Amino acid sequence: xxxxxxxLGSLGTNCYLVPSGENRCIIIDIGDGAAKLRxxxxxxxxxxxxxxxxxxxxxHVGGVEEIRSHxxxxxxxxxxxxxxxxxxQANLAYQLxxxxxxxxxxxxxxxxxxxxxxxxxxxxxxxxxxxxxxxVCYQIxxxxxxxxxxxxxxxxxxxxxxxxxEMRASLERLSNLCxxxxxxxxxxxxSSLDFEREHNPYMGGGI
Length: 207
Fold this sequence. Notes:
It is a single chain. By secondary structure, the protein is an alpha/beta fold. The protein is about 20% helix and about 30% strand. A 6-stranded mixed beta sheet has the order 1-2-3-4-5-6. A 6-stranded mixed beta sheet has the order 7-8-9-10-13-14. It has a two-stranded antiparallel sheet with strand order 11-12. It starts with a strand and ends in an 8-residue tail after the last helix.
């Protein structure tokens, strides 16, 4: 599975294009860079089938409505973060940008343990609150999209509406997953779950 990574917006948020069929893909997180994303999709003759959001902060949802409305595709977010798709106050746009946030007009909510079937993909939702109340990871085959829960060598901030106790529990849950996964975080480079288990100081509860 060849996954394409784009870095969108001033914070370089990772936007992932995951193949879901011939010339089709799903999109995971869209920061402030919808024009760059559209250019990439068009240059590669890719048709997106859905947008999956790991959480609701502006740097992960700022470009969602432009892409959703253009392609008329579903958007998925955990129910605890759905207010972030309606409000620039809730998604911290007022702190992260001087641009006006465009609310997302249509979306669907997911819960822990949901399994989505989109194109050729089976996608398992793992609720991992801590960075935000509705933070999730998406497991697709041997890939784990961790948003701002788990980074390579680090974790997401907990001082922007997060919760340290919930983050510890979420990291423990990820650490206890069976097997190894390629980890695709919301910022910076990829890693593997085995590597993070061994080397990431936060995986042992050190928050």
